[in-house]
Amino acid sequence: QVLLVESGGGLVQAGGSLRLSCAASGRSFSSYTMGWFRQAPGKEREFVAAMTQSGFSTYSSDSVKGRFTISRDNAKNTVYLQMISLKPEDTAVYYCAATALTYFTSSIRQYDYWGQGTQVTVSS
Description:
This protein is mostly beta strands. The protein has strands at residues 2-7, 10-13, 18-26, 33-39, 46-51, 58-60, 68-73, 78-83, 92-99, 113-114, 118-123.
């Protein structure tokens, strides 16, 4: 069992930056591929970024590539999402998630554990 708790969301102006954190409790954090997803009002939850267990491989969606960076600190059981050049269309609830799969996946159904989400609002 893994418990995930996100933090770091808030209100920011367009062009600004935020760093989201996701603290994990439970066993074997370093054995999980970690992902970030987001869900805007009236829209489906979508993949944002993921990082495999070792941290050697990262993946991000085209909509955030070059602006968002995922990272992890296995010693602190924490995964981060650094967001720069934020746009109003980035407004959403951001969720971190964990999967026991040892390879990258952007499929929501393949993630086993989810946090409660943190709101990010970007004003124009």
